[in-house]
């Protein structure tokens, strides 16, 4: 990217403002590609959680097990979920605070209780969640942190986000109670439970996918079948996805995604404790604490984040289509697990780490790998699962594919 051009009338403060704008731009493009792309496409969302036992269960086919997941009608549950994500991102250090500051400076709300920002923390590290549900109108998800807790509560038409550390509250409403039994919460496009992740993974099942049943396991004291989903062809960074499915209810109890490169799981999420009893009504009660700062959000339209829907054993929507929601001009090159999504940011490419400086500059340098081709030149940002190429003229290519596949897609595009 070219340096900031100035003339004699440009003040030092204006130059600083331009540089700050570029830092915010870096936060808007790099982090969404590496994080939101993972969540929205699931080809993109630890030591493994301990399974115990090898229960003797009746044999089932992969098709029967998929149908069992689709027919699962669990509406009441409570439990604890441990989720670990290892995308291979470097230690962000102070980057998180920089991103928050940039969002506040750019008028994006800035409430620490806003779920759309808070739940992206699940994209790295190990977290413990408490979850509860009582039908389509009542859900609660709490992210337990050291000495504090963050909760999202959906109760009828009200959606509350509460950050105990900052004593901030975010409130929004749904236009229709029961609008989405699992994702009424603003921002919960980030899959947070094994069920969310399994549903997204099943959308990828097509002719390019192998689906088998690989024995049994016991998770959170429940007997379960192991459903294994993996790409048939080479080129994808996905090794396989394993879903532990409760033998009685059909509810996914554990989700594990391992990369083609081997090593520890990229995503390992599972119940460590689960009960299918009706949660106490008080679980979903919420009143802003005295002195809390309350931010009012917009009304969430019914279906704004996509209905869970029911699987009939066939694909119902593609991950790349989910990724494309809200991105104008998005195109998909290739198919199945080797598909590459591409879109134009409509602006300049990513600034170099030396130009940005600070925590964001170090982040860019640690991920960036300069590449060239028929498309020109650009930078590949790599994780253990999702790779993204951003060209110097602002085009983005992203997918769970190798760096060479991204360059090939950019040349063809």
Characteristic key phrases:
single chain; 413 residues; alpha+beta; outer membrane lipoprotein receptor (LolB), chain A; 12-stranded mixed beta sheet; 6-stranded antiparallel beta sheet; 9 helices; 23% helix; disordered N terminus
Topology:
Layout (H helix, E strand, L loop, with lengths): L11 H30 L20 H10 L4 E10 L9 H11 L9 H4 L6 E10 L3 E8 L2 E8 L2 E6 L4 E7 L19 H9 L6 E11 L2 E10 L6 E9 L5 E8 L7 E9 L17 E8 L18 H6 L6 E3 L6 E5 L8 H4 L1 H10 E6 L2 E7 L4 E5 L3 E5 L3 H10 L1
Parallel strand pairs: 6-12
Antiparallel strand pairs: 1-2, 1-11, 2-3, 3-4, 4-5, 5-6, 7-8, 8-9, 9-10, 10-11, 13-14, 14-18, 15-16, 16-17, 17-18
Question: Would you write up a description of this structure?
Answer:
With 413 residues, the protein is α+β, with helices and mostly antiparallel strands. The chain has a domain at 45-311: Lipoprotein localisation LolA/LolB/LppX (outer membrane lipoprotein receptor (LolB), chain A). It contains nine helices and 18 strands. It has helices at residues 12-41, 62-71, 95-105, 115-118, 194-202, 319-324, 353-356, 358-367, 403-412, and strands at 76-85, 125-134, 138-145, 148-155, 158-163, 168-174, 209-219, 222-231, 238-246, 252-259, 267-275, 293-300, 331-333, 340-344, 368-373, 376-382, 387-391, 395-399. The strands form two sheets. Strands 7-8-9-10-11-1-2-3-4-5-6-12 form a twelve-stranded mixed sheet, covered by helices on one side. A six-stranded antiparallel sheet has the order 13-14-18-17-16-15, with helices on both faces. Mean pLDDT is 75; it is low at 1-7, 22-51, 92-108, 177-189 and 302-326.
């Amino acid at each position: 990217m070219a340096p900031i051009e100035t003339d004699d009338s440009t003040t030092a403060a204006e130059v600083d403002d331009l540089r700050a704008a570029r830092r915010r731009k870096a936060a808007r493009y790099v982090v969404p590609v590496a994080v939101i792309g993972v969540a929205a496409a699931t080809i993109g969302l630890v030591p493994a959680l301990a399974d115990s036992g090898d229960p003797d269960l009746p044999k089932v086919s992969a098709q029967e097990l998929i149908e069992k997941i689709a027919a699962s009608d669990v509406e009441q549950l409570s439990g604890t979920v441990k989720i670990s994500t290892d995308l291979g991102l470097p230690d962000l250090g102070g980057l998180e605070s920089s991103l928050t500051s940039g969002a506040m400076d750019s008028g994006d709300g800035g409430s620490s209780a806003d779920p759309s920002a808070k739940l992206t923390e699940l994209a790295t590290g190990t977290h413990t969640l408490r979850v509860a549900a009582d039908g389509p109108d009542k859900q609660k998800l709490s992210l337990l942190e050291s000495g504090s807790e963050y909760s999202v509560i959906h109760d009828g038409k009200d959606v509350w986000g509460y950050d105990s550390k900052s004593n901030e509250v975010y409130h929004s409403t749904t236009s229709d109670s029961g609008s989405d039994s699992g994702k009424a919460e603003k921002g919960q496009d980030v899959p947070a439970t094994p069920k969310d992740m399994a549903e997204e993974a099943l959308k990828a099942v097509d002719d390019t996918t192998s689906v088998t049943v690989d024995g049994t396991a016991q998770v959170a004291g429940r007997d379960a079948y192991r459903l294994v989903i993996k790409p048939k062809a080479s080129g994808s960074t996905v090794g396989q996805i394993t879903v532990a499915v409760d033998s009685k209810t059909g509810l996914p109890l554990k989700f594990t995604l391992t990369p083609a490169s081997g090593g520890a799981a990229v995503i390992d999420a599972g119940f460590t404790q689960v009960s299918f009893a009706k949660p106490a009504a008080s679980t979903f009660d919420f009143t802003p604490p005295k002195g809390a700062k309350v931010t009012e959000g917009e009304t969430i339209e019914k279906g704004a984040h996509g209905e869970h829907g029911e699987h009939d054993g066939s694909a119902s929507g593609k991950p790349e289509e989910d990724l494309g929601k809200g991105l104008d001009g998005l195109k998909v090159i290739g198919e199945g697990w080797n598909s590459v999504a591409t879109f134009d940011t409509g602006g300049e490419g990513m600034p170099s780490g030396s130009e940005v400086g600070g925590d964001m500059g170090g982040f860019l340098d640690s991920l960036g790998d300069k590449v060239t081709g028929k498309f020109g030149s650009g930078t590949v940002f790599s994780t253990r699962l999702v790779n993204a190429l951003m060209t110097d003229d602002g085009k983005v290519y992203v997918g769970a594919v190798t760096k060479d596949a991204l360059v090939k897609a950019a040349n063809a595009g």
